[in-house]
C-alpha cells in the first residue's frame, strides 16, 4: 500500500478527512480528496488510482453507486482499481444495488481502520488473482479467458471457484450452453454452491429444455427452499411452460423472502399485468416506484404498464405523470432504443386521450414489428395498448397489425396464451392471436411433413419463406434443424446455409426469448463480467458509425 494512490470522495469534510487519515495510517503515499461527484470523475480521468473510497450520498445530486456505474459504463475505471463504498445504512435496496454495480466492498459506518484495511487487501488479492482472465476479456479474447478459467479450476489455484464461475458465465453469455452447463455441473460436484446448480438450470432453460430446468430447480429448492434467485428462474421456466398461476406463486415466494426487492416487485407486477390482474399489477408497480424510482434497480417498463393502466381507467393526470418520467429517462439516454419505444407508446396513448389520430403511430408500429429489436416485451406492451385503444373506440380495429405481431411471437402455445392475455381488453384480438398460434403450427408441420416424405428442398424452402414472412423464431429454428440434417442432399447448400444463418442471427430463439423486465440487468444467479456487460458508447460526431 505504500506505493498506492487513493482517492477519497465524500460530501462531508469531516468524514473525508477521517477516511484520508485512516488511509495515511495504513501507509498510502498519495491521497487525493474531493467533495463532489463531478470532481471525482475529473480526477479519475486525469490520474490513476489504486483505491477509491467513496461516500454514498451527495446533497447536490448523485451517489457513489451512480459514479461507479458511470465510470464502468464509460470504461474509465481500470479493473485493478479497488472501489469501496461507505454508507450510513445497509438496507436491502442499497446492498442489492451495490451487487448490481459490482462494488468491490461495501462498508457501513461506523467501522474501524483495521476493517477498511482488510477490505482493501481482500479486494486487491482477488483482482491480482483474476487479472489475466480479465485482461483476456478486455481484449476480446474470450476463448483464452475461458481456458484460463478452466486451468485455474483444474489446478485449484488462487480464486479457483470465482474463476470457474467466470468461465461458466462467459460460456453462457457466448451461447456455448453445453460447455457452460458442464462447467456449472463440475463446480456443483466440487463445491455445491447454490449458484452452480442454478447455473445448470439457466443453461437448460436457454437451451430450450424448460422441463429439465424445472427438475433441476426443484432439486435446488429442496435443499434451499427460500432461495429467491432459484424462485426467479423457476418463474421464468413456468412462464415458458404456460404455467402462469404457478409463476405468480414463485415470484410471490421470492418477494416474501426479499420484501424490499424492487426488481422482484416489478417482475411480479409485470406478470400480473400481462395475465389480466390489473389491480394487483398496479399496486405492485406503484409500490416499486415509491420505493425506488431513482434506483438503478427500477425498470422503466413499469412506467409503460402503469401508463397503459391509467389510460384504461381514463386517468389523464396519472398517464401524463408516467409519460413525463419516461421522457425524462429517454432524454438522459437518447441512444436506448428500448426507452424510445416506451416513450412513443406513452405519447400515442396521450394523443389518443386528447382526440388526435394515430395513423402515423400505426404505420410506425407496423414497421417496428418486423425489426430484430422488437422483443416479446414490446409485443405485449403494444398488444395491451392496441386492445385498450380499440376497446375505447379511439382507434379503428387493426387486425393486420395484430396478425403481424402474433405470427412473429406465437412461438409456442404458452406464448400464444400470453399474447392473447395481454390483448384481453379487446376479445377479437385475443381470439385472433390464438388463431395465429394454430396457423403457425399447421404451416410448420406441413413443411416438416414434406421433409419427412423425402422432399427436404421444398420443405426447407417453405420454412425459409415462412420465416421471412413472419420472423417467427420457431420457423427459423425449424429451418435450421432441417438444414443441419439434410445439408448434403441440398443443391446450393451454402446459399441455404447463409440465408438461414442470417435469419437465425436476427430472429432465432437465442435472441428472442420471453423476459420480464430489462434483459440487460444482471440475471438471477448471474454475475457482472465487466467488458461483456458494458454497453458500447455511441460514436462521436467526428467518428464514423
TrEMBL record:
Keywords assigned: TPR repeat
Domain Response regulatory: 5-124
Keyword Ion transport: no
Entry's Gene Ontology BP terms: phosphorelay signal transduction system
Pfam families tied to this protein: Response_reg, TPR_19
Keyword Lipid metabolism tagged: no
Name this polypeptide is given: Chemotaxis protein CheY
Source organism (scientific name): Tepidimonas aquatica
